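Lecture notes, unit on protein representations.

Consider one protein chain, 153 amino acids long.
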Amino acid sequence: MTDEELMGLAIAQARAAADRAVADVPIGAVVLSPDGEVLAAAGNRREADEDPTAHAEILALRQAAAVTGRWNLTGCTLVVTLEPCTMCAGAIVLARVQRLVVGAPDPKAGAAGSLYDLVREPRLNHRVELTCGVRAQECGDLLRDFFRARRRR
């Protein structure tokens, strides 16, 4: 699958997060094995679970680790609709994810090139290959539409 197609899977997770009875910010993530098999997919669940760590990336990494039986996700790819925050970027590095594919940038909290670049920090013991801007407009529109609708309430 292409990065654009993979981002479509993450976008579906983001939409599902926003459509729950307890709506969450529409962010989705997908983890692929080194062979390209989908290991995990998740959308944000912070509101639904009342858990500040229930970001889509963290949930997808946890699922992928459970599927593989290993915390070390060497060779895996993480696709996410919004640039990861510092918590998620740290988890991505610690999980040894090989490649990160990002949709929309996050200039206020992004830790994969916008505000910080934790995933490629040379002082850390692992650096992640980074591809940014995949279906960025669509990913950004999801967020803008969600918050616009929330402000109207």
